Amino acid sequence: MRRSERFVPYRLLAPALALELVLVLGPLLVGLWYSLHNVRFFRVRGFTGLENYTRLLESEEVLNALWVTAVFAFFALFLTFILGFALAMWLERDGRFNTAMRAVVLVPYMIAMLVGSMLLKWVFSQEGGLAPMALGPVGLGEVSILGDPKLAMAALVYNAMWRDGAFAMIMLLAGLKAIPPSLHLAARVDGAGAWMRFRRITLPLMRIPILITLIRLLVHFVNILTFPLILTGGGPSGATEVVVLKVFRLGFGDHLLGQANALALMVFLANLLLVGVLLALFRRAGRI
Questions:
Q1: Secondary structure (H, E, C), 60-100
Q2: Which domains does the chain possess?
Q3: Which of 122, 173, 217, 233 sits most deeply, having the most CB atoms within 10 A of its CB?
């Protein structure tokens, strides 16, 4: 009986692991095989080796997409995290007003990314949008937000903040709620100010929630597709064409499935590298 009991956890995990292998490992292996072949319209036309990878690394459009992704992910991660942390600190205490405000902040996150992006596209639209109407009285009504490269990137980052700031707030608010109030009370008795309590108590005890939030947001922003596809379409002139949007267009627009899968695998490896770097930075700082 004891021997059979040892295998009970593995038996319980077996269905989930089998499903994971079929839905994750299977497509990953198929994508790797496609990336080494010339595939058009799902027809394999010959083995090409690493030719798809070299073509992608030599393509100015792909390099531009990588740069755009880096810029978007950096600003979106930084601003979304700051916004989420500020909201979590502001709405930490329980009360009617704070409870109502939490519900209000969660509204954009509850809206589907497609619907939210379409809504913001209408807001920023030059024809009848709310933003040009609001800027009209100050003489900026003719400014095309989605037609200017820098403003279009700013709109894309705002889209990320507007929706995912609520997610960051939820994760960080859970971490704040786990801190014993007695620690802050003792620090107050000892004469510690708000900044000292934040630095010496809140931040050290928020290490794990902060790490989880940063990793989740980073992976989300590096692999984003809906925001640029709906809001800006990658324009103007490729200013907001992120790398996953490039994968989408290579595969479903140009039907170059070999190159699309090669670029997708490169993005996958980049995700692993970024998460590894983030974990290493936290470990080096002595935070884990």
A1: HHHHHHHHHHHHHHHHHHHHHHHHHHHHHHHCCCCCHHHHH
A2: 50-284 (1.10.3720.10)
A3: 217
